[in-house]
Amino acid sequence: MLSWRCQAVFDEYGFALENGGVASKDIDAKLADYQKALDEAGYQKVLAEFQSQYDAWKK
């Protein structure tokens, strides 16, 4: 399943970005790295599946 890969990316980047662990001058580059890593981990597929399940539930 792809979600564990996305979790691993979050573990690597998310906490530091959310809690001031990245120097202000490095934030843009780190966010770009984070987005690239999420895309490579299959985040868009996970997001699409979540959206599909939500849409089905919402009906």
How would you explain this protein's 3D organization?
The chain has one domain (3-58). It is built from 3 helices and no strands. The longest helix has 16 residues, at 3-18. The protein has 59 residues and is mainly α. The protein has helices at residues 3-18, 27-40, 43-58. Helix 1 (3-18) packs antiparallel against helix 2.
Quick structural gist:
α1 runs antiparallel to α2 (27-40). The longest helix is centred in the N-terminal third of the chain and has 16 residues, at 3-18.
Number of domains: 1
**Through-space gap between termini:** 26 Å
Counted by DSSP, the helix tally is: 3
Q: Give the biggest sheet.
A: none
Radius of gyration: 14 Å
**What is the average per-residue confidence, as pLDDT, rounded to a whole number?**
94
Q: Beta-strand percentage?
A: under 5%
Count the beta strands: 0
Topology:
Blueprint: H1 3-18, H2 27-40, H3 43-58
Helix pairs in contact: 1-2
List keywords for this structure.
59 residues, 0% strand, elongated, single chain, mainly alpha
